[in-house]
Amino acid sequence: MWEAPYLVTYGVATDKKANATMERDIDESRQRMIDQQLKLRGITNYRVLDAMDRVPREEFVPLEHRDKAYDDCALPIAERQTISQPYTVAFMCQALHLKGTERVLEIGTGSGYGAAVLSLLAKDVYTIERIAELSTHAAETLKRLGYDNVMCGLGDGSHGWPEQAPFDAIVATASSPVLPEPYKEQLTDGGRIVIPIGATREHQAMMRFTLHNGEWTIEDLGYFVFVPLIGSYGWSGDPHT
Ligand code: SAH
Questions:
Q1: What is the dihedral of CA 213, 215, 220, 226, to 10 degrees?
Q2: How far, in Å, CA of 131 to CA of 129, rounded?
Q3: What's the CA-to-centroid distance between 110 and ligand 1, angstroms?
Q4: CA distance linking residue 140 with residue 78, whole number of Å
Q5: Band of the pLDDT at 229, cuts 50, 70, 90?
Q6: Which tens digits make up the pLDDT trace of 201-219?
Q7: Is the CB of 90 under 6 A from ligand 1?
Q8: What's the 227 CA to ligand 1 centre distance in angstroms?
Q9: 39 Cβ partners below 8 Å, 6+ apart?
Q10: Using CA atoms, how far apart are residues 132 and 137, in angstroms rounded to an integer?
Q11: What is the share, in percent, of the chain residues with pLDDT greater than 70?
């Protein structure tokens, strides 16, 4: 069935006075996000809180949603995808236990926001997206804002990114019916994979797989909702067609 394309506009307002007011509102909203959405719900890792405080989320959301950039929800971006809720981004980053020396793979670049936050927590971030328009736009935003340790790739990230492996941490921001087999092979010993997994597209548990001395530890970190990981090792077909 044909559906009208979803129109998304990015950009910044040019009126100086309006901009100054907007900047102040944004700073306050970001602080509220840190205090009420993150700290109160158990995000305690100060590096994660600091990264969430430093990344301008409003730059990654479409212009028409800019006033909602720090709201407690996911927001639509282009191609019927979403930028994850701030709490979800912080939760996944905290679950990865990053120290700053790691090579991280993110599956599902989307807006590029998650990659920007990760880039402040790790040494290098490789992020892969299956939709060309999103990948191109995210790469431009990340470059414009100076996140130089983020490498953007286009393709089916359910295969991981074999050319850039191994990784010390892998995070999938789209949900899969099972843990894609290639992720296990692309992880260094001592590394962690955080990924939402569910038998249906609607019910997902955030899972953490930790590899230590060749042994896997598997933990269920709770219930979340994500868009599906579409690919060879994820869900087949696009749900919108
Ligand atoms: N991290 C993003 C969240 C994006 S939502 C952000 O901060 O904005 C998840 C993204 O995963 C969507 O953009 C979707 O297109 C992408 N995706 C789904 N299946 C994929 C696959 N097999 N490979 C790469 N990206 C995929």
A1: 80
A2: 6
A3: 5
A4: 15
A5: very high
A6: 778 999 999 999 999 999 9
A7: no
A8: 8
A9: 49
A10: 9
A11: 93
Average the pLDDT over 188-208 and give the result: 93
First to last CA, the chain: 7
CA–CA distance, 59 with 147 (Å, rounded to integer): 13
Question: Does residue 24 register a pLDDT over 90?
Answer: no
Ligand 1 in reach of 182 Cβ (< 6 A): no
Q: Is-catalytic flag, 176?
A: no
Catalytic position from the list 84, 119, 135, 176: 84
Give the pLDDT band (50/70/90) at residue 241: very low
* 107 Cα to the center of ligand 1, angstroms: 6
Which among 194, 186, 192, 235 has a CA at the least distance from the CA of 210?
Answer: 192
Residue with tokens 């971006």: 77
| Domain at 6-223, CATH homologous superfamily | Vaccinia Virus protein VP39 (3.40.50.150)
131 lines ligand 1 (CB under 6 A): yes
Among protein residues, the one with the nearest Cα to ligand 1's atom 14 is 108
Structure tokens at 87: 């709490």
Q: Give the model confidence (pLDDT) of 29-82 as tens digits.
A: 999 999 999 999 999 999 999 999 999 999 999 999 999 999 999 999 999 999
98 Cβ inside 6 Å of ligand 1: no
Number of the ligand 1 atom closest to the C-alpha atom of 138: 8
